[in-house]
Amino acid sequence: KGLNRGDYQVPLLPDWWLAGPARLLAALQGLDRRSPLARIPCPVRVLAAEEDRIMPLERARALAAAIPSARLEAVEGSGHVLVLEQPERFVRSCLDFLASVAGYG
């Protein structure tokens, strides 16, 4: 059985605990990595958690937009630890993606 949102400790962390990663991401915000991303030739799935405070949905959208073959999948009701919060959904998404690219190349 997967964990529910109340079954793990991340939501209990104080806002200041998440401030370090947020500052790190802010420092990288001006770094333009679109050129290398634009050269990724294979299919890509960007799996994003709608309530992620570390990698907000708008950043995931920008990442997906920068990769020509990327498809964005946003997961409702999940934060940064999607693999723990909704493990069945995470695995299903990965397996669906792998099935969709089976035989690629």
Gross morphology: flat
Please report the distance between the alpha carbons of the first and last residues: 36 Å
Count of DSSP H/I helices: 5
Helix vs. strand class? alpha+beta
**How many β-strands, per DSSP?**
2
SSE topology string: HHEHEHH
| Arithmetic mean of pLDDT | 84
Oligomeric state of shown chains:
single chain
Whole-angstrom Rg: 15 Å
Sketch the major β-sheet.
2 strands, parallel
Q: Give the spatial strand order of the biggest sheet.
A: 1-2
What do these coordinates show?
The longest helix has 15 residues, at 87-101. This protein has five helices and two strands, in the order ααβαβαα. The mean pLDDT is 84. It is flat, with a radius of gyration of 15 Å. It has helices spanning 15-28, 34-38, 57-66, 82-85, 87-101, and strands at 44-49, 70-75. The termini are far apart. The chain is α+β, with helices and mostly antiparallel strands. The protein has a two-stranded parallel sheet with strand order 1-2.
